[in-house]
Amino acid sequence: MIAVEGVVKRFGAHTVLGGVSLTVAPGEVVTILGSSGSGKSTLIRCINGLETLDGGRVTVDGLDVADPRQLAQARRLSATVFQLFNLYPHMTVLRNITLAPELVLRRPKNEVEAQARALLASVGLAGKADSYPGQLSGGQRQRVGICRALAMNPRYLLLDEVTSALDPEMTAEVLAILARLATQGTTMLFVTHEVEFARRISTRIVFLDQGRLIVDLPTDQFFAADGGLAHPRIRQFLSKMAPSSTVAGAPVSEILA
Amino acid sequence: MPFDLTVLTPHLDTLLAGALLTAGVCALGIAAAFALATALGVLAVGGGWAGRLARLYVDVFRNVPFVVQVFFLFYGLPEVGVYIDAFWTGVLALGLVGGAYGSDVVRSGILAIEPGVVEAAKVGGLSRPAIIRRIVLPIALRTAIRPLGSVFVNLVLSSSILSMITLDEVTGTARGVASETYRPFEVYAFLLAAYAGLTYAVSLGIDALHRRLNRHMADNGAARGAAPGAMEGTA
């Protein structure tokens, strides 16, 4: 379980997270919604140890991420997919995926490569193993980013606005894969602006507003008139969101074809 | 007196030996400079005392004339009981000064790396040494290798100063031959060619390294154009 307890994060005088608590249990798909600057990405970065906490505590299966040794263990349990992909530009697609499993998990090279090729095939990139990131489109790069995360066999998948840098078509490519992962029972913590998609795949939705978590509800209750929608800030947020039904509605096979 | 290279024939062995010695001291000096530049460049990026120390080192060695450093190592150190022969003094001096200049190049290469790439490696659980060796340096050196080449070429040129500490490298040898033959034109023409050849060899080596480090960009001009576009969504 990922447990976030009263986490405070400040950048200078600006408080980005003002005491946020949240849990993600195995099998859940939890979506974090909120406007830009509400602290969504910072929350993810506090969980994977990219930010130091100014208060509170984050544990991943009981491992405290503030402790360097426990963080090293915790990082084997979760994997992150980034908004800007962050692929290693000097390595082939295959090497991008196999590097950490080989070096960190010390798994045999041929086993990791076989898994990497299978993952690439599953996201429609079987022919790209020997390409470099610079030769791929954004959507392809993000699909590699997802493969890289999945090759760690993580218990928790952290997704930080993974479609925000992509055009609608590429967004559809990536969301289709995430939808499939969700149905396969992958535990995910998902920061996104794709509200309709979140509604379809999430078990729970939390809403961050100015560094505070103001709502944490099961998905159907979040969108219920007497649930999350009863909250004026959430109603205001959702009313400004353009419906992305084309993306959310298309089946996996259709998008990847 | 017409230009006549045959006057060098009796001294060719001496001159070539000098050129070979210069090539040797430079090759080792460049290797040392490369290692030191890389280490200092990595340290200088970080905060803390190690970073401050690295930056101090760079400031000190860039602000002292090369000849003074060489004299200090060769004539000064024996006073405190440290004896290094002329050849290894040359290697050491070239390494120390080349490391200082080169580290700034490596440092700027590291600072130009997209932070997210390093974050991805951290989150993947890679250790700090693994991140430096497999992610940071290969990416930093892609852009740093050419300016590093200029530093190395300068080292070859600076090596002529080593004749002042009794090293029989090519410049010192040539001066000897010139005063013996009274044919400075031919002798120094040879010297010009020798340095041009040595620095050209350095350039060729750097070109090969540059191609190797940038091989992922060689076959696709669009790759370079694609990268900045992907950054537009930066939060």
Automatic annotation (TrEMBL), chain A:
GO MF annotation terms: ABC-type amino acid transporter activity; ATP binding; ATP hydrolysis activity
SUPFAM superfamilies noted in UniProt: P-loop containing nucleoside triphosphate hydrolases (SSF52540)
Superkingdom classification of source: Bacteria
Keyword annotations from UniProtKB, A to Z: ATP-binding, Nucleotide-binding, Transport
Domain ABC transporter: 2-235
Pfam families recorded: ABC_tran
InterPro entries hit by this protein: AAA+_ATPase (IPR003593), ABC_ATPase_HisP-typ (IPR030679), ABC_transporter-like_ATP-bd (IPR003439), ABC_transporter-like_CS (IPR017871), MetN_ABC_transporter-like (IPR050086), P-loop_NTPase (IPR027417)
Record bears the keyword Cell division: no
Family, per entry: Belongs to the ABC transporter superfamily.
Protein name, per record: Amino acid ABC transporter ATP-binding protein (PAAT family)
Automatic annotation (TrEMBL), chain B:
Entry-linked Pfam families: BPD_transp_1
Localization per Swiss-Prot or TrEMBL: Cell inner membrane; Cell membrane
Gene Ontology CC terms: ATP-binding cassette (ABC) transporter complex
Alphabetized InterPro entries for the sequence: AA_ABC_transptr_permease_3TM (IPR010065), ArtM/GltK/GlnP/TcyL/YhdX-like (IPR043429), MetI-like (IPR000515), MetI-like_sf (IPR035906)
This protein's record includes keyword Transmembrane: yes
UniProt keywords, alphabetically: Amino-acid transport, Cell membrane, Membrane, Transmembrane, Transmembrane helix, Transport
Membrane topology: Multi-pass membrane protein
GO terms of molecular function: transmembrane transporter activity
Residue spans crossing the bilayer: 20-44, 56-76, 82-101, 148-167, 187-209
Similarity annotation: Belongs to the binding-protein-dependent transport system permease family. HisMQ subfamily.
Summary of the function given for this chain in its UniProt record: Part of the binding-protein-dependent transport system for glutamine; probably responsible for the translocation of the substrate across the membrane.
Domain ABC transmembrane type-1, first and last residues per copy: 19-210
Organism listed in the record: Nitrospirillum amazonense
Keyword Transmembrane: yes
Protein name: Polar amino acid transport system permease protein/octopine/nopaline transport system permease protein/putative glutamine transport system permease protein
Any Gene Ontology biological process: amino acid transport
